[in-house]
């Protein structure tokens, strides 16, 4: 019996290792470029605003309109990924968003920039929830949060490494072929997405049963374990696609994710501005590259903290508490940072906020697959991500409007903290509700 158990552990360890090495690094590369293409607008805020004469409110609109297109197409995109397979659909997403980012580099005015940012959301819709759904088809429940965390470390790494690189591209690209620095940066960062999209078509495998790169016993073990989990979910909850999309639990999760996304994108678009504000607050002169390097510090902390926090969540199995604690800590830290009288302390508290926001995400995305499977999971994950990412539209616009109205960034950051604290409270309420959430009429 001990020999059989040891053999099973050996097969499971080999399988998870093979699958993670094959799949996760490529998805990380895809998300690295994706996240960089999302936040590079914030890095170039001052240059773009000067070049195209954008007010703070208009910059917030340009930043946030991306999420309008994103939300409109999110659920259909995820259902298309379920139907056509991740390999084809993720390749389509990467190529189309890369083309739009390159086009943004040639935007001659505000109207064109707004239209292209909207199209970028349409082109990119489905990437993140598609990958989350794809990982749920490859990794059993006990490994899922840490695999999502590994995949998602690409975003803080992109912010940590990509921020100074983007700043450097703006600096060296100014005047190249008659372009402004921000235009040169956009073009340089759009091309890798197109290349990765082409590679994706030939590299990814849609499901474990088609993975010829796994050993037969590894493939059999993975297919059996995942099939057993799906049968258990269907037996316990029996959600149809329609039932999932109308489930109160799914909509509550969407509201929680709204708070997470609100904090995430407020930081992404305004952290460089907070750091550049050191000139006024602490009388410290910083170049755009130095701002990028300092901005990278919180994201480097977030990359490490996110993985360790999600690994602990997988070990305890208590993902809800890990989401709530992270949001609570982040919600308190961000407004405190505004009242500190030392640049070092400001960076430390911003790093705490970034680590908390990123730390909440992998544990959050381990929750839907605990009661959803198949098309219900694909549709609901798309819905949660689309509604949640309205926070990505609201946060930069409201933060910019509050900054313009008050002349300071304090009001906007206080609101960020409040929204995150409300999400922490909501996920705590969800924990107290019954686990079974059967909508009327739900059947397979």
Automatic annotation (TrEMBL):
Keywords: Membrane, Transmembrane, Transmembrane helix, Transport
Matches recorded under SUPFAM superfamilies: MFS general substrate transporter
PROSITE patterns named in the record: MFS (PS50850)
Tagged with keyword Transport: yes
One family name in Pfam for this protein: MFS_1
Bilayer disposition of the protein: Multi-pass membrane protein
Protein name as annotated: MFS transporter
Subcellular location: Cell membrane
Gene Ontology molecular functions: transmembrane transporter activity
TM helices/strands, residue ranges: 19-36, 56-77, 89-108, 114-135, 147-170, 182-204, 250-271, 291-310, 322-340, 346-367, 379-399, 411-430
Ranges of residues in domain Major facilitator superfamily (MFS) profile: 23-435
Keyword Transport recorded: yes
Gene Ontology CC terms, in alphabetical order: plasma membrane
């Amino acid at each position: 019996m001990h020999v059989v158990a040891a053999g099973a552990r050996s097969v499971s360890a080999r399988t998870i290792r093979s699958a993670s090495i094959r799949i996760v690094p490529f998805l990380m590369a895809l998300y690295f470029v994706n996240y960089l293409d999302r936040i590079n607008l914030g890095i170039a805020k001052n240059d773009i605003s000067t070049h195209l004469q954008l007010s703070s409110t208009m910059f917030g609109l340009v930043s946030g309109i991306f999420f309008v297109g994103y939300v409109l197409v999110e659920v259909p995109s995820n259902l298309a990924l379920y139907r056509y397979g991740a390999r084809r659909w993720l390749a389509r997403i990467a190529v189309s968003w890369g083309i739009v980012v390159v086009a943004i580099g040639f935007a001659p005015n505000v109207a064109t920039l707004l239209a292209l940012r909207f199209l970028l959301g349409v082109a990119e819709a489905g990437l993140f929830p598609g990958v989350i759904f794809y990982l749920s088809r490859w990794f059993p429940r006990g490994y899922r949060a840490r695999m999502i965390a590994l995949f998602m470390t690409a975003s803080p790494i992109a912010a940590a490494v990509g921020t100074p690189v983007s700043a450097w591209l703006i600096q060296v690209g100014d005047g190249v072929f008659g372009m402004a620095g921000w235009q040169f940066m956009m073009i340089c960062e759009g091309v890798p997405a197109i290349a990765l999209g082409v590679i994706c078509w030939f590299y990814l495998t849609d499901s474990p049963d088609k993975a010829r790169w796994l050993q037969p016993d590894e493939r059999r073990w993975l297919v059996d374990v995942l099939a057993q989990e799906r049968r258990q979910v269907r037996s316990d909850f029996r959600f149809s696609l329609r039932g999932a999309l109308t489930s109160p639990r799914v909509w509550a999760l969407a509201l929680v994710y709204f708070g997470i996304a609100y904090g995430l994108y407020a930081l992404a678009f305004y952290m460089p501005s907070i750091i550049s504000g050191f000139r006024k607050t602490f009388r410290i002169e910083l170049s755009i590259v130095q701002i990028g390097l300092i901005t990278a510090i919180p994201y480097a902390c977030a990359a490490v903290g996110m993985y360790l926090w999600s690994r602990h969540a997988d070990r305890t199995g208590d993902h809800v508490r890990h989401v709530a604690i992270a949001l609570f800590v982040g919600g308190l830290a961000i407004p405190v940072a505004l009242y500190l009288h030392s640049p070092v302390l400001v960076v430390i508290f911003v790093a705490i906020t970034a680590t908390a926001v990123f730390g909440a995400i992998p544990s959050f995305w381990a929750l839907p697959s605990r009661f959803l499977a198949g098309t219900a999971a694909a549709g609901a994950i798309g819905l949660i991500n689309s509604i949640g990412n309205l926070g990505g539209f609201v946060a930069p616009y409201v933060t910019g409007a509050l900054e313009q109205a008050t002349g300071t960034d304090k009001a906007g950051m206080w609101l960020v903290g409040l929204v995150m604290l409300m999400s922490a409270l909501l996920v705590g309420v969800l924990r107290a509700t019954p686990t079974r959430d059967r909508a009327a009429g739900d059947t397979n």
